[in-house]
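Quick one: structure for this chain?
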Amino acid sequence: MSKLNWKLRPVLLHIFFWICFLALPLLLGPNSASNNPREIDRHFQWNMFFVVFGLFNIPLFYFNTEFLLRKILKKRGVLIYIILLVISLLVMLWFHEELFKWFFPEMANGGGQRGNGFRRGTSLRIIFQLLFIVAIGTSYRFLSDNMTDQEVKKEEENERLKSELSFLRSQISPHFMFNVLNSIVSLSRRKPEMVEPVVIKLSELMRYMIYETSDSKVSIDKEFSYLESYIELQRLRFGNDIKIDFKHNLSSSPSSIEPMLLIPFVENAFKHGVGMVQNPSIDIELNDDKKSLFFSVRNQVSKQNLEIKDESSGIGLANVRRRLELLYPDQHELKIDEKEDSYLVELTIKHI
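Got it. Here's what it folds into:
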């Protein structure tokens, strides 16, 4: 229903405009306190003359806006447009003369000085009315076309952003699987008995990735559960070899967030915060309240670990940076503090 109302709105606005326009002669025409029937009849004739002529201004309006401006001006140029517009105005002036003769035959056939004065005054008002219609129509067409162009550009930009976001989100799963499969391969060599529970946990993560992330936004509760499952998977892999601290404080009315927006930071921490690091530890914090969402990940790093980065290193972070720019252009703040022995990421997203 709302969509239908939106389509009918321009039609209703046009109808309202023409009703007001045709009512102007009745509202602004001369009022006479005389009880002379002849004077009353003349004023009625005068009002009806302008109402009837106003009705014929409607085709002129749409002839100018829909044909001359859209077809002639844009395709044939200004000169042809002006010539055809002048011809249209001359036709309307000729029509005015004929209409005047029909409404006021006594004045048209030599009504004396008073009749000629009345006729000249009427002609001036008619010319003004025609120029007014042309000016209104031209302004309407240019404003309408400009608004349409802006809507088209905005729609094209939205489609481009949607395509880019879709591409960025499609990159997450392969990148995530690449990291997790490397973890399973490593685990199969060190602790083969742990492969089965890790694969089960991985299937839970895959279920979320496939079925829960199709929407543009998900509840922060779901994203939290996903992060918790991923961290539990890493605990199964590393056991007591790494200290993992995951603090969280979620609001009773959780906010929404782009799915899988936070996981690249955690992946990065496990990828570069383990291995050649002595006594590795990863600290993760997630806080969500009515004003903002705060997420931080801190991990230790080793110079040797940084020097042997593979080619895929950094893809996840570059991906999430771009997604933040597209989704939260004026709502987020991303801080990365990289030191010799530690790496800290802090992300704040303001709720609007």
